[in-house]
Amino acid sequence: MVWLGEKSGEYSVRSGYREARKAWLIWTQRNAIIHGKQLLAHNVLNKREEDYMEEFRSAQSRLATNSLSLNQISWRPPPLTCFKLNFDATIFKDEEASGIGAIIRNDRGEVMVAFSSKGPLVSCSKEAEILACWCVVEFALVCGFMEMVVEGDNQLIMSPLELKRSLKSRVGHIIQDVLCFLHGFRWSQVQFAKRSANTVVHLLARHAKNLVHDVIWMEESPPPMMQALYHDAISI
After folding, report:
1. Within 13 Å and on the Cβ side, how many CA atoms surround 14?
2. What average pLDDT does the chain have?
3. CA 183, 189, 195: angle at the middle one, nearest 5?
4. What's the pLDDT tens digit per position in 117-174?
5. Quick one: three-class SS letters along 219-230?
6. Domains of the chain and any CATH numbers
7. DSSP helix/strand/coil, 87
8. What is the pairing mode between strands 83-92 and 97-106?
9. Which residues pair with 150 in a beta bridge?
10. Is the model's pLDDT at 80 over the cut of 70?
11. Cβ proximity of 98 and 122 under 8 Å
12. Under a CB-based contact definition with an 8 Å cutoff, are residues 218 and 102 in contact?
């Protein structure tokens, strides 16, 4: 079988699929002759090939739509020469504990530092998130980062931080502490991220469930999160 390609001279998946379908139809007719069955008419064969191509085009269209959707909600790198801190928290009610995950990456998506930590049980997800934020922002300052984007997926926490406004609630004083920490950076920006753009730290927070001691990765990718990090990297 000769793969003729497209009229432009290029050899695309589409042209390869078309030739493969033709070969399959020829093979089907050959088997019909061998086994004494009736051959299909040419107009039936042509119609069947058209149906296969329509099925292929439909599948390609769905794939393109899904890829676009994934790209729109993936992790995005910080501005040039800056770093991005993503964090997340989770509650392990069965163990009366909580988990914190955080990662700092540069504008090329390279991991500068990441950690997974197990903490005490907290009353709700909002409290878990703000305590995690307090912890990781202080951690970033101690590590010496000066230009930082801080990103989390709890809008109830990220909105007052982005607006630089405290809350009149039981976690209001913690938000005020985080705002003070943010002044320690030479430049900082706070923004909300959808969960799909925060997958790596969500997994790091879940990873803390089985930890006895905190785990820190310095300038290396956390092995349990390699697949999620790869997905972030190809979306850049």
Report:
1. 13
2. 83
3. 130
4. 999 999 999 999 999 999 999 999 999 999 999 999 999 999 999 998 877 778 889 9
5. CCCCHHHHHHHH
6. 13-72 (no CATH), 83-234 (3.30.420.10)
7. strand
8. antiparallel
9. 85, 190
10. yes
11. yes
12. no
In the predicted structure, residue 74 carries a pLDDT above the cut 80: yes
String of DSSP letters for 153-174: S-HHHHHHHHTT---SSTTHHH
Quick one: pLDDT at residue 164?
A: 86
What is the number of other CB atoms lying within 10 angstroms of the CB of residue 178?
A: 23
pLDDT digits (tens, 9 = 90+) for 39-68: 666 666 566 666 656 665 665 555 554 444
3-class state of residue 139 by DSSP: helix
Overall average pLDDT of the 227-235 stretch: 92
- Reading the block at residue 125, the tokens are 């997800």
Tokens linked to 69: 């959707």
Our measurement of the distance from residue 225's CA atom to the centroid of its chain's CA atoms, rounded to an integer in Å, reads: 11
Structure tokens at 77: 């790198």
CA-CA-CA-CA torsion sign (139, 236, 196, 152): positive
pLDDT, average across residues 75-90: 97
Query: Cβ neighbours of residue 227 under 8 Å, at least 6 residues apart?
Result: none
pLDDT tens digit string along 203-228?
999 999 999 999 999 999 999 899 99
Q: Which residues contact 151 (CB under 8 A, 6 or more apart)?
A: 84, 85, 86, 87, 158, 190, 191, 192, 193, 197, 198
Token pair in block for residue 60: 């390609």
Per-residue pLDDT, 65:
44
Residue in 214, 217, 202 with CA at minimum distance from that of residue 151: 202
